[in-house]
Design goal:
This protein is mostly helical. 74% of the residues lie in helices and 5% in strands. It is built from 7 helices and 2 strands. It has helices spanning 2-27, 30-38, 42-52, 55-88, 94-127, 129-133, 143-148; strands spanning 152-155, 158-161. The protein has a two-stranded antiparallel ribbon. Helix 1 runs antiparallel to helix 4 and helix 2 (30-38) runs antiparallel to helix 3. It is elongated, with a radius of gyration of 21 Å.
């Protein structure tokens, strides 16, 4: 059970990361990012590149967020159903305990994910979107990965913006 609770915690953190990334990119102000990029912040230039062509980014975020939520539901239901069943055996007839425990488990894991993997991270990301959208150092992003999807090219220590209409055909 402890391992499963750790897994649920990691899934909530992963979902929170996706939620923060999405809102930070959507809420970041182009003028502030442009100023940051002009001051030499290569991370701000990467975010500007993503803002110019956000479709694939948002698709990945949505798929990742939904996958993590589904896994959280599967793991969470199995962990908390037994706990709720043990509590409900004292107040419900035996034939209703299993169904009621499932409902309680479902509602509990849903509440955890809504609060800690969606609402709270999005609120934090909206309070400082530029910081959230540039929170990774440029060393975290492989120059080759960014070039491979057509967001920018990296030559002689400089990022060059080269977004095409379809980054996968670049």
């Amino acid at each position: 059970m402890v391992v499963q609770i750790v897994i649920i915690s990691l899934l909530i953190i992963g979902a929170a990361y996706f939620a923060m990334s999405e809102i930070a990119l959507a809420g970041s102000r182009r003028l502030r990012l442009t100023r940051m990029a002009a001051d030499g912040d290569s991370r701000a230039q990467l975010v500007l590149n993503l803002k110019d062509n956000p479709g694939y980014f948002f698709s990945v975020v949505q798929v990742g967020s939904n996958a993590v939520a589904i896994l959280g539901g599967v793991v969470g239901e199995s962990v908390f159903k037994g706990f709720f069943a043990s509590l409900l055996t004292y107040i419900l007839p035996h034939e209703f305990v299993d169904a009621a425990a499932f409902v309680c488990s479902f509602l509990f894991i849903t509440a955890l994910f809504v609060m800690f993997a969606d609402l709270l991270p999005k609120r934090v990301a909206m309070s400082c979107p530029e910081a959230g959208s540039t929170m990774h150092s440029s060393d975290d992003v492989s120059h080759h990965d960014v070039e491979a999807i057509g967001l920018a090219s990296y030559d002689d220590g400089e990022w060059h913006h080269e977004v095409t209409s379809d980054p996968f055909t670049h």
